[in-house]
Amino acid sequence: ISVTDFGAVGNSHQYDTTPIQSAINACPSPRPCHVVFPSPGTYLTKTIHLRSGVVLIVEKGAVILGGTKLEDYPKEFERWYVVLAEQVVNVGIRGGGEINGQGLEFVKRFDERKNVMVSWNHTGACLGDECRPRLVGFIGCTNVTVSNVKLNEPAYWCLHIVDCDNTSIHDMSIYGNFNSPNNDGIDIQDSNNTFITRCNIDTGDDAICPKTYNKPLYNLTATDSWIRTKSSAIKLGSASSFDFVHLLFDNITIFESHRGLGLQIRDGGNVKDITFSNINISTRYYDPSWWGRAEPIYITTCPRNSNTKEGSISDIQFINITSVSENGVFLSGSKGGIIRDLKFSNVDLTYKRWTSYDGGLVDYRPGCSGLVKHNMAGIIMEYIDGFEVRNMNMRWSEEKSVGWDNPLDFRPSTVNNISFVNFQSSLYKKNSLQDI
Ligand SMILES: *[C@@H]1O[C@H](CO)[C@@H](O)[C@H](O)[C@H]1NC(C)=O
Ligand SMILES: *[C@@H]1O[C@H](CO)[C@@H](O)[C@H](O)[C@H]1NC(C)=O
Ligand SMILES: *[C@@H]1O[C@H](CO)[C@@H](O)[C@H](O)[C@H]1NC(C)=O
Ligand SMILES: *[C@@H]1O[C@H](CO)[C@@H](O)[C@H](O)[C@H]1NC(C)=O
Ligand SMILES: *[C@@H]1O[C@H](CO)[C@@H](O)[C@H](O)[C@H]1NC(C)=O
Ligand SMILES: *[C@@H]1O[C@H](CO)[C@@H](O)[C@H](O)[C@H]1NC(C)=O
Ligand SMILES: *[C@@H]1O[C@H](CO)[C@@H](O)[C@H](O)[C@H]1NC(C)=O
Ligand SMILES: *[C@@H]1O[C@H](CO)[C@@H](O)[C@H](O)[C@H]1NC(C)=O
Ligand SMILES: *[C@@H]1O[C@H](CO)[C@@H](O)[C@H](O)[C@H]1NC(C)=O
Prior knowledge:
By secondary structure, this protein is mostly beta strands. The chain has two helices and 34 strands. Bound molecules: 2-acetamido-2-deoxy-beta-D-glucopyranose (9 copies). InterPro entries: GH28_Enzymes, Glyco_hydro_28, Pectin_lyas_fold, Pectin_lyase_fold/virulence. One of its GO terms (biological process) is carbohydrate metabolic process. GO terms for molecular function: polygalacturonase activity.
């Protein structure tokens, strides 16, 4: 079924909402049905709702363009998406084309450090400065496939998977303005059996971000991808009220991001059985208004505030990791949220500075004690019981290691049962660093 058969014009300024929704509604749901957006064409629309069995085919050269007005979205903030699928099965989007949220239209003031964004909080639908529409959402769905489309310029989160089972996201290109806050790449919330592969994600905010608000999250796999972000490339949390179990991240390149692999657990959920393997990382400092302090690996479990519990972290492995970074690894459990059974093997860490931002801060945000002055070190450890390191190589720039105190920094009162086998730490000659 083609949206043009229902009168869509695709001229980028006339709304095609009614033709698009009529085409979707003409599908013999729940039987399989393709709704085609022909190329060329830029189809401006208010929120469109998928039905069971419907797959949107956005042809290469065609664009679904999200509206930028409040009245383009439903009343409830929970439904503010350009494309929304709710409580349906066997749905998807593909075809080689693009979905664009016109995120730049939501910038109130452009700023290299961080753009100031429009907020629709006067509606009371949502609060603070995070009150903007998301791009694509699947809520309470089974069997979702999103592949071969470009998701561009979301005004807020880009691809949001909520309370779903069996989701496949592959061969995607996701792009959000590098200076815009909250334009996360893929947020996977309260969902099971999610498979992400061959994605290119270049965003201001977190790129792949599993979260738990109302249910646990089981079985997430993300592989064969490339990421750049001004925040965390991979981040568990910070919304973390329920458990995260059995997650695998493999064969991923993380380029010049503010943080590489992060577990930012704040709300009492427990994290276990997580593997990060075959990952190359480079991290650097950006403006400190963005969370992240150039850590290639970051784990924290401090409670968000005095009303939240601490979650525990156990059975976490980092295998075959190389990084070049401006700051060290930060592993910080908490009194009630000890990090246990943590393993690093074949980990190669190169430390050098290349931006002029200040070092010497550890970052407990959000909440907790915020940004705290602390000497720089190769690995800072707090509240850990059971850490096994095998084959670790730390290399330090000869000239620029000023300000870095120790390869390993910990207090024996909170750190117990650690072992290092084949641990090397050495200076790197100036010239040999140039090609890193
Ligand atoms: C609404 O958002 C703006 C940012 O765009 C912020 O300055 C303001 O404090 C917010 N108001 C409320 C009530 O949250
Ligand atoms: C999901 O897809 C599989 C086949 O790929 C099918 O067997 C299963 O019934 C589908 N689930 C639902 C809820 O339709
Ligand atoms: C995911 O699996 C867990 C454990 O079986 C279950 O409690 C939860 O409801 C499941 N979530 C979904 C979205 O199916
Ligand atoms: C998930 O997908 C697999 C493989 O396509 C299928 O066998 C299974 O039935 C699906 N699960 C559900 C709950 O539909
Ligand atoms: C997680 O995946 C395993 C297979 O790898 C499966 O046995 C288990 O049922 C899945 N858990 C959930 C909650 O779907
Ligand atoms: C790793 O991912 C890249 C794509 O980013 C792919 O080209 C390559 O084949 C993958 N390597 C392996 C060993 O799967
Ligand atoms: C990481 O770098 C090594 C050495 O340059 C290379 O062999 C490997 O393929 C890279 N892996 C990824 C995921 O980029
Ligand atoms: C780690 O790298 C080694 C050498 O390249 C490889 O043999 C091994 O399979 C990798 N381990 C994992 C878990 O991918
Ligand atoms: C030390 O930690 C390892 C896992 O890292 C665990 O297998 C072992 O039982 C721990 N030993 C003690 C004495 O707690």
